[in-house]
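Two proteins follow. First one:
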Amino acid sequence: MKKSPKTQRTSPLLGGRKILPRPVAAGVTVKDLIDNAFCAYNGARLREGARLLSEKMLAADSVVGLSVSGALTPAGLGMSCLIPLVEAGFVDWIIATGANLYHDTHFAIGKDLVAGRPDLDDRRLRDEGVVRIYDVLFDYTVLLDTDLFFRKTIEAPEFQRPMSTAEFHHAIGRYVAERERVIGRGRKSFLAACFEHDVPVFTSSPGDSSIGMNVAARGLFGNKLVFDVNADVNQTAAIVLHAKREVGKSAVWILGGGSPKNFMLQTEPQLQEVLFVDERGHDYFLQVTDARPDTGGLSGATPGEAVTWGKVDPDQLPDTVVAYVDSTVALPLLTGYALTARKPRKPRRLFRKLPQLMDVLRAEAERGTRKHEGKTTRLGHR
């Protein structure tokens, strides 16, 4: 005889929050809107991400790394979101595309970008000297003047040596901050904010941007500036090791995907697989992306997949969130939520600490390598 279905809810799966949101009212705060009305689908994932960020990632025992891909700064998100996050101490280190840093500089040197439309005639734009980033427009001379700023700046004696991209951006940030002061339009550059708060800013592909193009061009004429990508790999790993050994937790906040995402996550395999340091992976993972996972691309790869590479601690998978939302929508919401939910944190000023962090990394890598090579030798004699 067929059993009749149970009439009483007994499954523990039904113990979640009831979907009974209040009507949205005038004057609602970003935090209240997300907590109340983002009940399901990617809205719920964004709410989970906002809570993960504010309750765990921004705790005193967590170091937050932010990766930035896409064209976010020309859309104004450097000014509206990244600067407030840096100034609040909510971002401790950054990996960004060179393009985001190049376009960030336009504003600092007094250049304007304007809102346009994505359906304009690009042949007419070219004829009239107008450059388009989807629906953002600016005069072609903005590029030329920004190129000139970088070429002139890197002629200074302090740039005549190999350096990591964090060292380069910190040095450039001082010039950008000074240009802002002279122009008098206020804080416009998040690179300048990072300089003043000693937030290390790395670029995973330094040759893949107009900044790298100008550095390469000056190299043809004897300029000694060279980006030390080995230093980038080791300094980022040293920051993560510091987070795990000295602070407590390592949190990664990923906007988009691409090369910055991988460069941030590869810090753990660098420690575990290459340097033989005893580690398990990042503790908190928050990604905002519009990339699908089923195409096999890194931009859409899930935190579960990252576990298999050692990038994310398998025990911390419950503290991972992926929201499939455009970063230009999600970042302002997450920024507003975090600034409402958490008090500002004291800046960690990790840039100042990089030499000491590298000493710790080197010592742990030497111990790990000796131990690993000892095991390999013993196995070889069997």
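Second one, unrelated to the first:
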Amino acid sequence: MRHISHFQSSFGSRVVVALMGLGLVGFVVFHMLGNLQVFEGPEALNSYAATLRDMPILLWAARIGLLGVVIVHITLAIRLALRNRRARPVAYAVREYRRASLASRTMALTGSVLVLFIVFHLLHLTAGIADPSVHNRLDAAGRLDVYGKVVHAFQNPLYVALYLVGQLALGVHLSHAVSGSLQTLGIEHAAFNRLFKRAGLAVGLFVVLGNLAIIFAIFFGIVGA
């Protein structure tokens, strides 16, 4: 019975991690698409941000819910990793990586980098603590100038470098998160496994290239104040 409950607990945790991972993937895609409005100019992006702020209950519910999902996702992932390590206390003399991708082998590393990046991102563009110089600046319509804040941020080479590291970790993490989560949920078949891996890579590239387009367009002066 102990072995059965152990298996059920491990399996249940993996399913929860997979579901939450897919939910976070959806948020990351939505977040990137919203930010792409920077290419439409300050009116579009500031209006979008103001619309979100005009629904404070929903906005804070989403923020708190997202934070809770992230915390539970990280906690369960760490617990699963530690449980797997305890179940195999003696390391393999030779590790076999022929079937494991680079993304799958570095999930813990990229996940750790992402946690640090998310904290920095919240302190930077959300809370304005990392750079308070333009945090509360308003546009001509009296709205918070999110467009100006983003442009100001990515004109700074230091912030560009930090965000590039974050995007690298995000892309690698996403490329395995999609396919790995689908396989954990039992959506696995020899005919579809290659498709799932390609889907994971496609989602990762889609998100990262969208974010990089914003960063580089501002840094090289294509988009500006």
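SUMMARY FIELD: The mean pLDDT is 84. Residues 2-219 form a domain with the 3 helical TM bundles of succinate and fumarate reductases fold (CATH 1.20.1300.10).
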